[in-house]
Design a protein that fits this description.
GO terms for molecular function: methylmalonate-semialdehyde dehydrogenase (acylating, NAD) activity. The chain is α/β, with parallel strands linked by helices and 497 residues long. The protein contains 15 helices and 23 strands. Bound molecules: nicotinamide-adenine-dinucleotide (NAD).
């Protein structure tokens, strides 16, 4: 069986004797296709040591050279992204067009990082004091760890590593053990692009590997994306050992539909954002908040469109693929059971799986619930599957109160034709990323991606200028060269004049 192993010092290394392994499956067929090595603490430590050894030379590599490698990586990725998309579909299950979209959104961050020279420019002040000048620089941190989730095996690592590497850091990526092959493919691409050995490292593993990264004194920063409990754990443990940490967590994204909205647009948006990637997106819409007067019509439009979706193997021209594992499929099905038990109206039952799906695959059909109440587990929990809940409210104010009371704050959207209502929503909503008639408002690479509340632990969002700041530290230099004034001994605090 094929084994996916670690990438250390510019090449694949064999799993050490006595290694633990996890199975990799094709979720569309249920077939075990490979195994992935789970790193021990010793393997992680040796990976970190190789990154730390590569850091000083990479930090001192000119911006011109670093940037040329970034451009080469971008060109290779652009030419060969179809290969990466196929790998993603075979291990994650999302349909090929969606996998390609993920790679393209990651590529945008690479393109952003190609402009690193401009982004790292400091400031200069002449004559801050008499014949004294001041300038600022931003310098890389050292070794940056990235710990990523299963649902975007290429894009989420690319939220971070292009910026970290361009800024002069060495990166150690610990991808999800459920779909690890994309990380090794990207590591090979870096080698082809001319990145020096040790600057991009991949260790595969589970909690043992994550803990080794969090506890290593040689790791300077941690960028984590995953579920909220693990994000909180990583943030607390990482900061306790003195690291800079950004930990992006789970989500429960709402879409508020006002009576004046274009209901066809809103229904299309709810279907696309609710069931795309089988709901396994941190920006998926899972709660449609419908003002009562249009709720019946909206639910009918969503149901009508959802019935047309083709469910099946993501590599074979389907609209929606399987869930990532059998265990996750069963967990999501359990939420559908709970929704029925708690009295929500089941409009479409995803437990009845289409015959276009392989019975050995991890499939559910799209599920639509109406009359969902905020105390039901299908509303309170992040299901991370193709289950859309419609919550009915009386007014805009009730809608905004509901969304702001939710402990998550990743993404949200309003559907309306009233500019004033939209502007109020932008201003009042306590969520990090907001769409107006746009259901999945993922920011462009030159803006920053991040949620509020339980969707982010730490202060800094991913990529954009916040990302550049995360992967660098500021330094301010005060200089006197010409005509130094010997003011003699003066123990007072230095003042300017
Ligand atoms: P997860 O939390 O199970 O795993 C994320 C990473 O943490 C993986 O690399 C995994 O190996 C590691 N991990 C798992 N258990 C651990 C433990 N006990 N100790 C230390 N490390 C551990 O998340 P997932 O299921 O892979 O991904 C789905 C979750 O990620 C969802 O909650 C989703 O909302 C979230 N997500 C959030 C964003 C965002 O931008 N906020 C983006 C993508 C995904």
């Amino acid at each position: 069986m094929r084994t996916v192993s670690h990438w250390i010092n510019g090449d694949t290394v064999e799993a050490e004797a006595g290694s633990r392994f996890a199975e990799i499956t094709n979720p569309a067929t249920g077939e075990v296709t490979a195994q992935v090595a789970l790193a021990s603490r010793e393997t992680v430590d040796s990976a970190i040591a190789s990154a730390a050894a590569a850091f000083p030379a990479w930090r001192d590599t000119s911006l011109a050279k670093r940037t040329s490698i970034l451009f080469a990586f971008r060109e290779l990725l652009n030419q060969r992204k179809g290969e990466l998309a196929e790998i993603i579909t075979s291990e994650h299950g999302k349909v090929l067009s969606d996998a390609l979209g993920e790679v393209s959104r990651g590529q945008e961050v690479v393109e952003f990082a190609c402009g690193i020279a401009h982004l790292l420019k400091g400031g200069y002040t002449e004559n801050a004091s008499t014949k004294v000048d001041v300038h600022s620089v931003r310098q890389p941190l050292g070794v940056s760890a990235i710990i990523s989730p299963f649902n975007f095996p290429a894009m989420v690592p690319m939220w971070f590593f292009p910026v970290a590497i361009a800024a002069g850091n060495a990166v150690v990526l610990k991808p999800s053990e459920k779909d690890p092959s994309a990380a090794n493919w990207m590591a090979e691409l870096w080698r082809e692009a001319g990145l020096p050995e040790g600057v991009f490292t991949v260790v595969h593993g589970d909690k043992e590997a994550v803990d080794a990264l969090l506890e290593s004194p040689q790791v300077d920063s941690v960028s984590f994306v995953g579920s909220t409990p693990i994000a909180q754990y990583v943030y607390e443990k990482g900061t306790a050992t003195g690291k800079r940490v950004q930990a992006l967590g789970g989500a429960k994204n709402h879409m508020l539909v006002l009576p004046d909205a274009d209901l066809d647009l809103a229904a299309d948006a709810a279907v696309n954002a609710g069931y795309g990637a089988a709901g396994e997106r941190c920006m998926a819409i899972s709660a449609v908040v419908a003002v009562e007067s249009i709720a019946d019509e909206l639910v009918a439009k969503i149901a009508e469109r959802t019935r047309t979706l083709r469910i099946g193997d993501g590599a074979k021209d389907s609209d929606m693929g399987p869930l990532v594992t059998a265990a996750h499929r069963d967990k999501v099905a359990g939420y559908i059971d709970a929704g029925v038990e708690m009295g929500a109206t089941l409009v479409l039952d995803g437990r009845e799986v289409s015959d276009t799906a392989d019975p050995n695959g991890f499939f559910l059909n799209p599920t639509l619930f109406d009359h969902v109440r905020p105390e039901m587990s299908i509303y309170t929990d992040e299901i991370f599957g193709p289950v859309l809940s419609v919550v009915r409210v009386e007014s805009y104010d009730d809608g905004i109160e509901l969304i702001n009371a939710n402990p998550y704050g990743n993404g949200t959207a309003i559907f309306t034709n009233d500019g004033g209502a939209a502007r109020r929503f932008e201003n009042e909503i306590q969520v990090g990323m907001v769409g107006v008639n746009v259901p999945i408002p993922v920011p462009m690479a030159y803006y920053s991606f991040g949620g509020w509340k339980n969707s982010l632990f730490g202060d800094t969002h991913a990529h954009g200028t916040e990302g550049v700041h995360f992967f660098t530290r500021g330094k301010v230099v005060t200089t006197r060269w010409l005509d130094p004034s010997h003011g003699g001994i003066n123990l007072g605090f230095p003042t300017n004049g």
